[in-house]
Amino acid sequence: MESVSGSSASVADKAVNQMQICRAEYRTIGRFIEQLRPTRQCMKILQTQFPHLPPSTLLSIFSQEYQKRIKRSMSRHHAPDVVKAYYQRYRSEAKTRPTAPLLLELANQVDLSPALLARLIVECFLEEREASVSASRHVLNNMLREPYLIPDLLLAKHVEQCTVNDCCYGPLVDCIKHAIGLEHEDMLRDKLRERNLSFLDENQLRAKGYDKTPDIILEVPIAVDGHIVHWIESKASFGDDHSHHTYLNEQFWSYCNRFGPGLVIYWYGFISELDCQRDRGILLKDGFPSDIVTLCQGPARSRV
């Protein structure tokens, strides 16, 4: 996560506010992203083009937009004749240019995630070895997580290159996303403790028998921007139209019906127009709010 430092709360708030962008600007970023591939170099290009946004926000936006693009074209890449052509091309070039980053080059040329292409190639490799018997998902996933398990050492090297260089898909990205999500949940709990706010977290709620809950339920409600908050949900991502409306239907409205109004923190920012459900019980922020008021104690203060 990108940290924000400064000598005063106003400086920090100003930096945080830069993570909220209007829908028109988001669409501009989306159009620019259409020409990029999911490599580490693409982030440098984005940061140069949009220097006013934090790198973490740009990475989140790029990842979400790229995943939408891949979903639109996935059926084409998974057509049996296309997969076979990818595999034959790789095997042919591996004989003449073994030291070249062949799978990375091919992924870039066909506009497919390197990690997803690596998955297709390893699957073909295993089927070829096992006389056309489909490899189990368990074996395939293990080889993608630990490429050294692949019997073909050259293929193992090329698969590893894909995993390391893909910033949107693959086992390495999945681990990083999971760790970042936990980090922000820990950050949220620390912020609540600093302000002496009593709460139950997701693990405690599950132990009490709740099946689907927000990350935090406050034992004493608070007010933020004049709105009552009973629960808080932490999202270590950027809130775009697609993801936010999905969360509304699958999580947030359910939380409101069961626990009352709440707060959603998109740590990497969100489209400003999405913060339009306050009167219906859902408040959006791009960081932990500084203007908390408890219903019985007045303004919540940090421990000294």
Describe the structure.
The structure is a single chain. This protein is an alpha/beta fold and 304 residues long. The chain has 12 helices and 9 strands. The protein has helices at 9-17, 23-33, 40-49, 55-77, 80-96, 102-110, 114-129, 137-145, 153-165, 171-194, 202-207, 241-259; strands spanning 20-21, 199-201, 216-224, 227-235, 262-266, 270-271, 282-285, 292-294, 298-299. Strands 2, 3, 4, 5, 7, 8 and 9 form a 7-stranded mixed sheet that branches. A hairpin with a 3-residue loop joins strand 8 (292-294) and strand 9. Helix 5 (80-96) packs across helix 7 (114-129) and helix 7 crosses helix 8 (137-145). The protein is elongated and about 75 Å long. The model is unreliable at 1-17 (pLDDT under 50).
Which helices and strands appear, and what pairs or packs with what?
Elements: H1 9-17, E1 20-21, H2 23-33, H3 40-49, H4 55-77, H5 80-96, H6 102-110, H7 114-129, H8 137-145, H9 153-165, H10 171-194, E2 199-201, H11 202-207, E3 216-224, E4 227-235, H12 241-259, E5 262-266, E6 270-271, E7 282-285, E8 292-294, E9 298-299
Parallel strand pairs: 1-6, 4-5, 5-7
Antiparallel strand pairs: 2-3, 3-4, 3-8, 8-9
Helix pairs in contact: 5-7, 7-8, 7-9
